[in-house]
Amino acid sequence: MGLRISGKRALQTPAGLGTRPTPGRVRQALFNILRGQVEGCRWLDLCCGAGTVGAEALCHGAAFVAGIEIAAPACRIIRANWAKVAQPGQSFQVIQGDARKLLSRGLGLDPFDYVYFAPPYEAGLYAPLLPLIPPLLKPGGTLIVEHRSSHELPDQVGSLLRFDQRAYGQTALAFYRHLGEER
After folding, report:
1. What is the domain range of residue 107?
2. Among 49, 84, 103, 178, which is least packed by CB within 10 angstroms?
3. Is the residue at 28 inside a domain?
4. Tens-digit pLDDT profile for residues 62-121
5. How far apart, in whole angstroms, are the C-alpha atoms of residue 117 and residue 100?
6. Which pTM does this prediction carry?
7. 183 lies in some domain
8. Integer CA distances (angstroms), 87 to 60, 81, 126, 139, 144, in order
């Protein structure tokens, strides 16, 4: 199975793994909102599934993209897709593992400008993982949470303050700013 991202580039998607690629119109809207802000940034695609959002970040000039995904077959596809779109001077890392365990013990990576968090909607990962995200962000960094439009997220989680919310049919994006220095 495949899908297209910026520039009409075709990517592979993992078949039968229960991954849910972020809808194309949501990705397009996200990167329109962030226009001009992604170039040169550090981006984390958390619970990255097919890795399409990380691939878009690379297409929009992110300097470094990291992805966390639990399914090993999906990680192989993500690496291949990101290698296809990465340009000279860009780098990426795909980490295979359970996000709860990895975030609880720390990633050992420099903080990110953006974290995109799109867990499986029914996996119950929002409440346990949101409080673990601030140390991953630079002060002033942005967390973007993809969720069902019908699912309410808190206005604040520790040093994360929601500053925007957008809905696209059944999918919504919540934008949080990291206000503190929780490192």
Report:
1. 2-178
2. 84
3. yes
4. 999 999 999 999 999 999 999 999 999 999 999 999 999 999 988 889 999 999 999 988
5. 12
6. 0.91
7. no
8. 10, 12, 33, 27, 24
